[in-house]
Structure formats: structure tokens, C-alpha cells
Amino acid sequence: MGELVNPKNVIELDHISKTYGDFVAVHDANFSIATGEFFAMLGPSGCGKTTTLKMIAGFEQPTTGRVMLDGVDVSSVPPYKRNVNTVFQQYALFPHMTVFDNVAFGPRSKKIDEKKIKTSVMEMLEIVRLSEFAARKPTQLSGGQQQRVALARALVNYPSALLLDEPLAALDLKLREAMQIELKRIQREVRISFIFVTHDQGEALTMSDRIAVMSQGHVEQIGTPEEIYRTPSSLFVAGFIGSANLLPGTVESHDGDDVVVALQVGATVRAGAKGTAFAIGDKVSVMLRPERIKPAAAVEVQGRGIEGLLTDLVFQGATARLIVRLDDGTEMTCLADSSATMPQIAPGKRITMTWDSDCGFVLAGWPDRAGATSTDFDHIESTL
Amino acid sequence: MTAGVTVSRQIGTNADRVGLGAMLVAAACLVALGAKWVSGPASSVVLLVLALVLIGVLVLALRGGPEARRLLAPYGLLKPGMLWLALFFLAPVWSLLRISLSTKPSRFSVDYNFTWAFENYSNAFKDFGTQFQHAFVYAAIATVLTVLIGYPLAYVIAFRGGKYKNILLGMVVIPFFTSYLIRTIAWSTILADRGFVVRTFDAVGVVRVLEWLQIMDNGKLLNTPAAVIGGLTYNFLPFMLLPIYVSLEKIDTNLVNAAGDLYSSATRAFRKVVLPLSIPGVFAGTLLTFIPAAGDFVNAQFLGNPNTTMIGNSIQDQFLKQNNYPVASAMSAVLMFSIASLVLLYTKIFGTEDLA
């Protein structure tokens, strides 16, 4: 299948699957990653993202399909002969070696001249801003510094691609946000493809050029963060990336590219469908992002939008989160500019939610639970 | 600062010193009693002092307030161990050294008088040099063998054991629930001249080779140096295996994966990552094996012959059969000090940060 080989692609996964007995960890993953790309594999735990990463690294062999690295089939090549490096979840720094020796480990395995090793190691420590820590042991460093040693240790080998397994999971929130920017900077500096695995959608949206959303071994959607956020391919993606209000209904008619949907909550709305052909009568859901919904006092805009009871108003700094219960019990959330919150909009009052006609997006099928999805982890775990 | 605080501070600092002082006095009392520095009515006085000191500290702790208790606590916690060592280590060592410098008034006497008899030490070296040599050489070879056997075994259990880990460890340890003596005597049956091992060697025809390797002697396996070393190796294997297992168990398998990821073959990953991280276990194991093995007398007695006696056998013989306490004590002292200096030297050369 030579036609698959594209010089711009570092990694090509050619219909790979991985099964453990009856359990399908990864099912028919088929995508490629371009040179210099920051690529995220996103999904809840157990979705197969780490298994996919391990197959690229060589710690696991695909049951079927091929892994192509720089256009060469490496499916059965052991990790130490593949030109990719991994940053492990807990960093896996060698505790008995100094930072310098840790970083020099790869080049020394390759038996490169010790003088050259010294220059390239110091250069890489410079990039991750750890030059003055070269003589320290990993245990004498903070979590963020250990993370950067792990990065330097992998990058010093100038791999075709760098694989990162939940690289920021062990850090606290502040440090994680700082490291997201730092990772992006380092990636731009070294121009190596970064492929990272995460369950944190915020992390994926912030850092990646493209995201592959995975669920239960399947790749649900691949696209830029914006594409995935605006035009998710499935109810799962819509709920997993950001928060969304999913309102079930049936297709009533077509209007150009848009679809007119009769919602179960009583309203009839127009929403975009992005080329997907829906037949009249299809069970669909309309996705509304909370920040696109405009809350208003019920009296002002009678007859338009959806009306409900405001049960809770949570001040979040720049924004306020409004929890609205519709008459049939469906709960919706919307995000409003907190400075513009009006006195008529207070918990216990009835309000109306409206949105511009291009804000709704139609997805096939009905959600398990109508209304607001949360990115709350317990909820996602329990729905899987 | 109020006067009350100053006073309580002073009591506090004093409590610190009182605690240390009380511990040292109590320890000295126990050594005096144990090493027989005092006897007769004087020992009652010492006992009384000991009791008063302990009761005094207790009263101070109960009445002195939280600050005094906080300062007394470490000495209170140290006391059981320290006093135990004073009575059962310091006092006997003192007696041992004293007896080692004593002489017997006559050859058949069981008594001895302290006379600064340093000739006991030169006699110990002169008469028992070979036994010392046997002890250290056999113990050293056995230690090396336990590393060679124990390390791979520990490695397999730690990294490949999976769910059978505990069963495998149990199989190593369970035989040691039987008495040391019984196990050693069992080995004499296994290695006996008509035992299945010798017969198998005979049948296979390797007796000549083993004789050439000095493992067998005149067609015999039992009562050879090899049997003694074999017995030591067998008996001390768990003391080597368990510390190595513990240090290997602690190694994160992701470190091995990381080494592989950084272009290391399995061999290099072992050499550069696993081995260095398991060295503390090997170090602890060699100490736990070599020290008791060098003083062992059971293996040489049941598996050896009169030419393989180790210093432990000679000491036992001098103490229990010849009743020559002075020479036996001198030999014990020499054994103790030579093991201590060997261990110190070993620690200096191979010591890791984690131990010593």
C-alpha cells in the first residue's frame, strides 16, 4: 500500500486495531500525523488512547494494521530501534543519575562522541531552561522541573516524533497551565511532531493543532480544536469537548443547508447540519453551547426562544453560569457576561433563552439525558 | 517575656539533660551488673540506683508539663533498646575481652585470672590460622554463590513473577521454617556417598571432572570443602535473595521502558538502570550472608571433615570441650574485629548512600 506514504506525514496508522482476548482496546484507527504537528489524542480513561500511543512507541504491537514511521513499516520493530521518544506519565527519570546523565542517556546508547553529547545535552537543557540544574539528581527537583528533564531527555535525540503520555497529569493546576504554554514554546523551537495523550479537553484545546477524540476504542472525530468544538461529529464528542446543551427532537423540514427541528421541549428551531443529510422525521439533537445562549427576562421576549425557571446563578468571575430548568424537567446551562447580569435575572425567576440562528448544530440521535452535559469527570465516567 | 516562661524554659532544657543523663546512668548500672564489676551487697546498691533513676525520670515526665515531656520523649523511646544493648551486648563484650586477656591457673582448671595475657591472641592466630582462613574463604565463596544464584532468582520473581510472586517467594522461604540443624543434616543425606546425587554423577560419568575441579574428593561429595560451601550457600540464600528482591521490586518498570525508548537494548537497560538501582539490595544481602557465614560452625560440622573446620568450630571446641575460655574468647574477639573491619572496608569501597 505504497500510495499511503506521504512525505509530509511522520506517522501513519494504517487501520490498526488492538485486542486483548475479547476486549477491543483500539478498533481500526486510521489517521496520519504531519511533520511538526502538535497532535492530541483525547478521550476518557479506557478509550484506547494510551494503547494507540504505545503502539506508536513500540511497547505494544497492533493485532492488525500497520504503523508507518517516516514512510517505513515499523509494526514489528522494537522500541529501542524506533526513532520516536516517549515522555512517560510519571516521567520515569532514572533516580540514580544526575539530570545531565539522564538527558545524555539516549545519545550514549547511540554511542555518539562524548564531546558532542555534552554540547547537545547542554543545548537541550538550555531550551528547557534547566542548565543550572545539570548536576542535580531528579529527586532534588520540583514536579515541573522533572517534567522538563523528561522532555529534554526525549528531545535531545531529535526523534521523528515525541510521544507524551498524560504529560501534565501529575502537576497541579497553576503549574499545568504554565507548562501548557511552555510545551507549546518548546515544540515551536524544536519543530518536532508532538503526539500527546490526555483526558483533559481544556489541555487538548489549548495546545493542539489537531485533536483525535476517542471513545471505547474508536476514533470519533479528528479535526482542529475549532472544528471539533463547533461541529462535533457525534453526541459523545459534543458532550466531551466543552459543555453543551443537547436538546432532542425530530427533523421537520430542510432550509438550504440548515435543518428545522421540532424540539421535544416544545419549540421549533433552525440549526446548521454541516452537509450531513438528514431525512424528515429523523431523531436528532440540537447542540447549543452555553456561551452562545442569551438569557433574558421572560416578560421581554415572550413567544421566542425557550422559557424556563432559573434555579441557580453561579458567579465565576468574568462569566456567570445560569442553570435553567425547563417545564419538562430538562436542565440547561448558559454562560453570561457576569457584568451584564440584570436584576430581572435572579434565581427563582422565569427567564427566556434565545440564540442566533447559526448557533445551533444538529447531531444524529438522542442523548441519554436531555439538556446540559457537564465536563464533570464523574459524570463522564458514569455515562461510559 | 515573663518570669514564668523563663522558669519553664529552664525546666525544659534541664529535662533534656536529665533524660540523657538518666539513660547513661541506667545503662552503666546494667553493664556493671552484667559484667560483674560489682558483686554481693554492692550489686544491690547498683540495682537500687537503677530503680531510682528510672522512677525519677518517670516522675519528672508526669509532673514536668508538656515541654519537659516533649524533651524527655526521645530518651524514653531510646531507653528500652539502649538498656537491652547495655545488658546483652556491652556487658558480654566487656566480659569477653576481659576473659580473652586472662590465664588459666592450671591446664585442667575451669577458672581463669585476669593477667593481661596478650599471648592468648598470638596463640589464637598461631594455632587457628587455618581455621580463620577457612572461615573467611568459605564465607566469601558462599556469599558470591548466593549472589549468583539469588540475583537471577530475585529478578525473575520480581519482574516475571506476576500473580505467582508470593507463591514463588513462599517457596524460597518455607523450607526455612524447618530448623537450621535439621536442614543441614538433611543435606548430609543428600550428599551422602550412596545418595542419589553421587550415584547420578557416577552414572553420568562426571566424577572425574568434579574431582579435577576439586568439588569431589576421592569419589565423595560429603565431607569436602565443596559440601561445606554448598551448605553455607543453601542456608544463607534467603538472606541474599530477600533484600535483592525488595530492591528490584521497588524499580518502576517504566524506567526499563524508558531505557528501551532511549535506544537501549535489554542488556544495556539492565546494566545501566536495573543493576545500579538494585545494588543496595546486593550490598545488604552480602552483609547479611557473609557475617553469619564467617562465624558458622554447623555446616562445617555436619558437611565437612577435620580439615575443613572453620573458626566457629574451633571456638565451640575451645569453649565447650577444652573449657579454655581465655583462648576461645581471644578467638571470638579476633573474629569479631576482623569481620567488623572487613565490613567497614567493604562499606568504604562499595557502600551506597542508602546504607552504612
Written account of the structure:
The complex is a heterodimer of chains A (384) and B (356). Chain A is α+β, with helices and mostly antiparallel strands and 384 residues long. Chain A folds into two domains: 2-230, Rossmann fold (3-Layer(aba) Sandwich), CATH 3.40.50.300; 235-383, Nucleic acid-binding proteins (OB fold (Dihydrolipoamide Acetyltransferase, E2P)), CATH 2.40.50.140. Chain A has helices at 49-57, 99-109, 114-127, 143-155, 173-190, 201-207, 225-230, 235-240, 377-383; strands at 9-20, 23-34, 38-42, 64-69, 72-73, 84-87, 161-165, 193-198, 210-215, 218-223, 245-255, 258-263, 268-272, 283-288, 294-297, 306-315, 319-326, 331-337, 350-354, 361-364, 371-372. Chain B has two domains: 3-100; 119-350, MetI-like fold (Orthogonal Bundle), CATH 1.10.3720. Helices cover 77% and strands 1% of the residues of chain B. A two-stranded antiparallel ribbon of chain B has the order 1-2. The model of chain B has no long low-confidence stretch (mean pLDDT 89). The chains are: A alpha+beta (384), B mainly alpha (356). The interface between A and B is medium-sized, with 24 and 17 residues.
